[in-house]
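Researcher: Next sequence.
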Amino acid sequence: MAKSTKANKPGYRCAECGHESAKWFGRCQECQAWGTLEEIGVPNRATMARIAAGAPSAPARPIAEVDVETARARRTGVSELDRVLGGGLVPGAVVLLAGEPGVGKSTLLLEVAYRWAGSGSTSLYVTGEESAGQVRLRAERTGNVHDAMYLAAESDIGAVFGHVDVVKPGLLVVDSVQTLGSTEVDGTPGGVTQVRAVTAALVALAKERGLPVVLVGHVTKDGAIAGPRVLEHLVDVVLHFEGDKHTSLRMVRGVKNRFGPADEVGCFELVEDGILGVPDPSGLFLNRRETGVPGTAVTVAVEGKRPLPGEVQALVSKSALPSPRRAVSGLDSARVAMALAVLERRGGIRLSEYDVFTATVGGMRIHEPTADLALVLAVASAAKDIALPPDLVVLGEVGLAGEVRRVSGLKNRLAEAARLGFTRALVPPDSGQVPPGIDVTVTPNLGAALRALYATAEG
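Model: Next structure:
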């Protein structure tokens, strides 16, 4: 008898990561989240063994006979968003768009709902954060008002389903999933249990009716999507809407996509009367000058499949502090620290008594190793007060031994640099075929790169 009681003893599961434990803890032992363990019943093995086979909803068919036309993506009318989605919205797909407050999520989705309505279908925009009048005012300001575009202000998921039954839309936008709740589920709207139940219900609705659903999601102060981790597993596509409040540039970055590439990026510009796609954002991250300026170097990063030239700037000044400052903006602080150590140890440039400030231009964020060589040369240029030529682009990863390593997609990066008027480049060895219109100098190590910098001063 005691053995049977132990077999049926309830356990606990983390609502964030799904980790199970036999005892309750205030903090999950797997993901370290607080207050997320919920009691679950352990199923009886004998009951599980007696499960009978049920009638399938549809017979299984050879994969070659499955109709794929009903799963073709449909364009939203916003080309930059379609690029990230992999061609458009797939019927029955659930898309989660997350971003910081005020970045422009609602403005973008109003544009999507308007374009969808203008293409001959209907769209339903459900807001749980604002009144219908507030959304209407924003739609008028941005010019996104259409007769086939329906608007509802609801906070109950059952009422949302009722609107779907009446309107029968071709697209459903929910702003936001954290504001919806259900009276049949315990907890308050925005809580772990409510968010999970609401999302599961919307996913079931989307799959049952072949209705594409776009959800707006909040983010925490760390930039992660608010709510349970299972939220990202339930949806088909996860997009992050990024942007600096001091600039008008916005980026939609794909994180998860079951129907297309998960590493693509779309660029937008937030203006007074709405949001505009930027099909060619290369010039936004450069300050083009006729003469070089000490402390600047140009590199080419890749966002998704799109090469984007960006400028890395550095400032080196004598420090009055016992511990000199190291300030970083738009770059990976760990890679900056490593690059400074390599420059001092392998390049012979003393930085221990100087403050070093590094940044990118235009709010661009570069976290790939391709920018290592540009960063090192920008710091060296600032320390020695030597300017790199304005028509020079620098590509390469710098190792701890001072070697310059090969980077991926070098041909496309150089082709984009040549298109923008750059005529010279510093590249790693074994870089392969070089596109016409650009003169390449191979730099196998940090010493060769610094010699090229000093030769610029002598020339």
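Model: Confidence is low (pLDDT under 50) at residues 1-6. The radius of gyration is 27 Å.
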